[in-house]
Amino acid sequence: MPLAFLNKAYMATASINVKAVTSTSEIHNTRAQSLSYVIEERIKLNESWPAIEDRQSIADREKEVRSLCKKLSGRKMRSSATPIREAVVNLGEETTMDDLLNLKDVLKEKFKVECFQIHIHRDEGRLVDEKGKTQYTKVKGGWKSPEGKIIKDPTEQNPNLQFKENKHAHMVFDWQNKDTGKMIRHGKGIMSQMQTETAKALKMDRGELKTNSNRERLEAIEYKREQEQIRFNELQQQIKQLEQKKNAAAERNREARQQHDDALESHTEALIRSRKLEEEAREIKEAQISLSRERTKQLAKKGIQMDKEALYEASNELSRAIELQRQFLHHQQQEIDRLEGESQEWEDKIGELEQTIDRTEGNIEYVQQKEERTRKEIERAKARIEANKK
User: Fold this and answer.
1) Which of 122, 112, 153, 121 minimizes the C-alpha distance to 136?
2) Largest CB tally within 10 Å, which of 9, 15, 302, 384?
3) 289 within some domain
4) Do 185 and 64 share a structural domain?
5) Are 351 and 299 in contact (CB under 8 A)?
6) How far is CA 101 from CA 119, 166, 242, 319, in A?
7) Which pTM does this prediction carry?
8) What stretches of the chain show up as alpha helix (H) in DSSP?
């Protein structure tokens, strides 16, 4: 989709919502993590402060915070404490990084919380019709309609579609009192004051107070619910793909086991034939020796009566018999060698098949584990979808 199309902005209301960071906050904010709902060609429009070479990571900051707590209070900070928090801030069409840096200073002065990372995201949004109703949401491979159809560029079919940018920023805060080392504790109504100060600093309209309206970021909640539904559908598709992979791996494992059994049977047969031939050769050699001895005795007894010519003929006959036996034994030895070679080949093939079986069983176990994780994620997605409906 041409970037020129993605320039339609809508009036936004100021909003700041704070929660504890997660293990994936940093890679999400810096886009080191691939996200299906992100518009790849707009990632270059994102901004981050400070520059990467000057930026302190969330992990390093939390380590620093916990060390200071131990130093000032003499006690370790609880493992369940959340000293690093993240705020999602709605932005207007004209909001700049300078405005957010100004908001950073205001929040530090009034609420003592120190922002050490800011990330502006301009790469999220959806396609809406003339009435502002969502028609397509960004997914992997294109844009998805409410009916589940994925289209690479819906604007080719409907030029009246408009891009509604989900323009926002993530501000990461250190929530520690640097004089005591403990967490900053705010009284009732502080978050409402933060909303007011955010609207002032960003020169935007403030959302209605809770006392005046039961509507609280309905549009954002709707958008979040849509994204959760998309994620849920993607997870369902992943389950199907994992089932197919698991079944394919199981079939390969079954085939490998059958080939292994066949190879083992052939190997056993080759060994039996080889041993039988060795036994036959041994018996022939013993018979040859016995025949030679017996024939020699007979010739010795008759030697007196036999003339030289008859003795010579008898000797030749014995030599021919010995040569025939030698040739037969040689042939038998060649057959034994061939069978031993064949037996070794079967042993090698059996070894390869056993490795294949090990690999396929490992693949099956991996796919089963991944399938279980995906099913758990589906359950969590279902719970979030249900929670957003309330």
Assistant:
1) 153
2) 15
3) yes
4) yes
5) no
6) 11, 20, 46, 110
7) 0.55
8) 25-29, 58-73, 97-111, 190-202, 218-302, 308-389
CATH number at residue 80: 3.30.930.30
- List the beta bridge partners of residue 86: 19, 172
Share of the chain above pLDDT 70, in %: 71
Residue 366 has pLDDT above 80, yes or no: no
20: left (phi over 0), alpha (psi -120 to 50) or beta: beta
How far lies 175's CA from each of 74, 108, 114, 182, 340, in Å?
Answer: 19, 10, 7, 9, 76
User: pLDDT digits over 56-89, tens only?
Assistant: 999 999 999 999 999 999 999 998 999 999 999 9
DSSP string, 207-251: PPPTTT-S--SHHHHHHHHHHHHHHHHHHHHHHHHHHHHHHHHHH
What are the beta bridge partners of residue 137? 126, 144
Provide the token pair at 118.
């800011």
Q: Which two tokens stand for residue 380?
A: 């969590």
Which position has the higher pLDDT, 282 or 155? 155
Q: What is the mean pLDDT of residues 133-149?
A: 89
Number of domains in the chain: 2
| 237 is a domain residue | no
Other Cβ atoms less than 10 A from the Cβ of 276: the count is: 12
Rounded to the nearest 10 degrees, the angle between the axes of helix 218-302 and helix 308-389 is 170
Nearest to 95 by CA among 128, 51, 55, 47: 47
Q: Report pLDDT digits (tens) over 174-184.
A: 999 999 999 99
Nearest Cα neighbor of 83 from 217, 199, 176 is 176
Would you say 228 and 315 are in contact if contact means Cβ atoms under 8 Å apart? no
pLDDT of the residue at 338 = 72
Question: Rounded to an integer, what distance in angstroms lies between the CA atom of residue 189 and that of residue 208?
Answer: 14
Same domain (yes/no): 198, 321: no
What's the pLDDT tens digit per position in 217-256? 455 555 666 676 676 777 777 777 777 877 777 777 777 7
